[in-house]
Amino acid sequence: AVPRGIVASSEVEQSYVMIKPDGVQRGLEHYKDLKDKPFFPTLIDYITSGPVVCMAWEGDGVVASARKLIGSTNPLQAEPGTIRGDLAVQTGRNVVHGSDSPDNGKREIALWFKEGELCQWESVQTPWLVK
Ligand code: IDP
Ligand code: MG
Q1: Does domain 5-129 fall into CATH 3.40.50.720?
Q2: What are the positions of the active site (predicted)?
């Protein structure tokens, strides 16, 4: 398929999904709702410690689906079969991020991607996964 730009304001629910950590200054704003938490300085050290892989996912219920796949914040409470449950041990090294609401999905995608950087791509398997 030929990639074409999509805009974060589209009507379709979106989730920003990130394989942490990032090396980009913009990351400092990403967790602003957690700025008063005691772990905030270590979280920023972690999230700016190297490159990340950024993704914008979209579809009905994608925020909840992504978080189900990712698992609980604390990997010790994450179910086996989830990314954090299978691959992580500590909350402070929990491998992956997923937006916690459709509004934050839009906000975070706009924070991490400039217009025109997103491409829309559909796997040939998609019609066999979702109706
Ligand atoms: P979430 O990633 O499951 O949505 P949040 O509560 O939004 O969890 O926290 C954002 C990130 O901050 C977590 O994924 C984790 O990396 C880090 N974090 C959360 N709580 C703690 C903590 O108590 N100690 C260290 N890091 C934490
Ligand atoms: Mg969160």
Answers
A1: no
A2: 97
